[in-house]
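Chapter summary example.
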Amino acid sequence: MNWTTHWHATAPSPTHPDRNEDSWWIAASGQAAAVIDGMGGYRRQSADGEVGGEHAAQLATTVLREMLDEWRNDATLEAAKQQLRMVIEAVNRRIWETLNWSGVIPVAENRGNQAASEISVGVAMTVAVAVEGGARALMAQHGDTHGYVYKAELGLLQVTEDQDRLMWDRLNGVLRPDEAHAISEAIDHFDGVNLTTVRDQRVMRYFFDKNIFGALGVAPEASETGWSPIKLAAGDRIALLSDGAYANLSVTEIQNLVSQPDRPAETVLALAKQRSQLARFPDPNNPFAPFNMRATQDDMTVVVVEVGDVSE
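The structure predicted for these 312 residues follows.
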């Protein structure tokens, strides 16, 4: 089975409409795709201009294009993991050496004499490739970009797991696996308004905590990759979203939009942009003013891929 139809949509944050720190990539072969979220809150000043998250995202996209553009869907799962890990290490190395000066950032770009870790740029990234003749997809995860599969009979399934505070606390014994799963489910289904669905106070704490780990380009060696294989059938859809897109939407809303027959990426982006314009909290002076706690102003990117049948 081949990935036969591809859609994408992206938009910069309204807080910096002149630049988009997200990026996307679809292989020339059509059998691989990625969403990349550039990171770098501190914008360094270099002789060639500013250095920010958009440069890291663009560099990661260039590496994907150079190394994976002709990806075929006939690799085994293990062979695909090995090749993707090579690509991930190349992304990490190129950003670390080219944009972050291998951790020795020149004084001219570090007027505040800050630690390199505080002013480095990097990326969160989810890459999806077809393997085993298209019978499965393999997703490689760094950070908190999302990878989903939509199946008509099962709905929307999040395939990747965020490398965030929730995962960190689960891995370090602060939360039991069942507690972390329940919190994640509550966050995903929260509509941003009805607080009766999130009675556990820990849900909102993790909902608002945006700390992540696993970013690429911020250290000499790439961190551990999160691997997620999933079986595919004709008619399934793969959806890749940056955090600016999914943060504004509940999983139910994403499912309803990803399953749309025409231009699903654009419809997801449109609702996310609309939601991002709302106030995040109720107006104490106007209780009838619309608000939504999911409202997040950030760069947004959506890629949707449809799986064709064997004959396509």
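To summarize the output: The mean pLDDT is 96.
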